[in-house]
User: Fold Diaminopimelate decarboxylase from Heyndrickxia shackletonii.
Amino acid sequence: MKLSHKQIEDLSKQFGSSFYLFNVNKLRHNYRKLHDAFKNRYPNFIIGYSYKTNYIPYLCKEMYSLGAYAEVVSKLEYDLAVKIGVDPKKIIFNGPIKSFEDIKTALENESLLNIDSLYEMDHVIAYCLDNPERQVKIGIRVNFDLSESNKSVLQAGYEKSRFGICVANGDFGSALIKLGKIQNIILAGIHAHFSTNERKVETYMEVTKKLCSLAKTHMCDTIEYIDIGGGIYGELPPEFGVQSPSFDDYASAICEVINNEFPYKNRKPFLILEPGISLVANVFTFIAKVIETKRIDDQYFVVVDGSVHNIKPTMHKRNLPMKIFYHQEDTQKNLHYHIVGYTCMEKDYLAFGVKGKLPNKNDFILFENVGAYTIVFNPPFIKERPSIIAYENNTYLEIRKKETLREFFHEDLYLFP
Assistant:
């Protein structure tokens, strides 16, 4: 997708001085590349797109049309999937909080339900006792140790993962006994969800081995799917300085494990992967207009009609890949400068210590790799949320309008005295 200052200026006049661009063709490329990497090595493969990563309805519908299941972690996301036409049998319901009504809906719709805690198990049992004529299938999210040489591999160095039913302390075994007493429950799946720092291939191999082992030991006659969670790397820009595994690297290692564990063609469970970041991070960009360039002592600040919340909600200090569209190419000086946003917070920096031609008023700055979590974490803070524009085959379509006061302070939610 090649853009010029004139094209961006025209889009700005139509959609606002800041907006997101969603490259639909790039999303399709990512999906097919990941799908083919695994499917060619293990035919019983399912992608469950992680809605929490980016639940723009247009994007989720596109994922479903490509063949992805909907992986949701709340009733809100579940209802969104149904609203855009996803077959409930192709919804994977995860997450640590589910009410009895949530579980009842999932069971009656024959969705793939993975229980995360013992209280959810009790909800399932209660439903089954109330509906003895109905046979239900569930999956169990399990928790086991993934440390390497007594060192945590988890995100932020946490010692223990907080998700799933613990294998080591006996809770998993007790749950199996309790569930086994209910005749109309079938244990059809086993699931794990670990957020790790390095997203290493070896970690996913270990997760797959342990899930396969548990399934063969405890669910040999009923296992239908092995769900290894998500979090794998996608294509990263060179600016990140990370040598990440490719889709083929992950697929080769993971599929080798599951093929070895289930060598017989007629007994191969489905392998489910729940990607989010790897599919959508690099398909969104954020474009913001330069409002002013100011000098304070010996430092230059470029003020844009955007915020760190639009591109880096965790406010990390690593600069994203970006491009600057100058309206007068030859007038800029090479300087060091910071790019800052519209909020009244000192830490509203979109980029630190940039070196290059200094942007001026009416230039535009495009920030890349902003498709994962950024949009869903974007808070209603100070200014309305910007438009989202889908780009496909040289056409632009507004898939989320810029908010107005009426949407920001919705009259069905707020009391106006």
In short: The chain has a mean pLDDT of 95. DSSP finds 13 helices and 18 strands in the chain. Residues 108 and 373 are 31 Å apart (CA to CA).
